[in-house]
Amino acid sequence: MNKEINSRLLQLENVLPQEIEKRSFEIIESELAQPLDPELAPIIKRVIHTTADFSYVDTLCFSGNAKEIALKALRAGAHIVTDTNMAKSGVSKERLAALGGQVHCFMADEDVALAAKEKGITRAAAAVEKAMGLAESLQKPLIFAVGNAPTALVELYRLIAAGKLKPALIIGVPVGFVNVVQAKELIMEAGVPFIVNKGRKGGSNVAAAICNALIYMA
Q1: What ranges do the domains of the chain cover?
Q2: Has residue 8 got a pLDDT over 80?
Q3: pLDDT of residue 5
């Protein structure tokens, strides 16, 4: 039994803790089926690193100059609004703060819960409405990172179409089955910079990964 255990242990790569991420990206690079656009590669690779899913190579969509617009916004002190506290917790707050920005999530706020109940809408939609006030008070670029709630994307589309909100960037990567694909398509037609994952895949971890890739690049 001990010999079997030792044999299995010997099959493991000997990687120092501080080298694990570097080794992971080396593996990703070696297993890519095709070269990536060098401008977008850091974002796509970080999503693959987070999910171990190479299908994002084909499904992540970027509006024209989305990366450059996002980096400019972050360097101007952009604030990020997420639709889950999980995504918020995954964003590198220290590095974002060094750029003059902060990350916010209003989903658990009492006033958001009350507004959602009164209006008969989801908390995610009510949280987007609250973020609209944040945009007005900060006078700084606003980036929305949506990894869970398609209703947040629908509300963003409605406010943008009404001329009430103009985000610097929308990261639209909610995961799920109900209205997920349709909500992502709305954002790609909203006339604002976007990074969207086509189809049903995504999640809070993907939203945070994209935020961090942009923050590291900025």
Answers
A1: 58-217
A2: no
A3: 65
In the residue annotation, 79 being an active-site residue is answered as no
Distances (CA, A) of 173 to 77, 88, 197, 209: 23, 14, 5, 11
Q: Is 70 exposed, middle or buried (0-12, 13-18, 19+ CB in 10 A)?
A: buried
| pTM for the whole structure | 0.93
* Confidence (pLDDT) at 196: 98
Task: Give the architecture (CATH level 2) of 58-217.
Answer: 3-Layer(aba) Sandwich (3.40)
pLDDT, mean of residues 110-123: 96
Residue type, 84: T
Give 133-142 pLDDT, tens digit per residue.
887 888 899 9
Are 80 and 96 contacting, i.e. CB atoms less than 8 angstroms apart? yes
Distance CA 149, CA 106 (A): 13
Of 28, 32, 36, 49, catalytic:
49
Amino acid at the residue 183: A
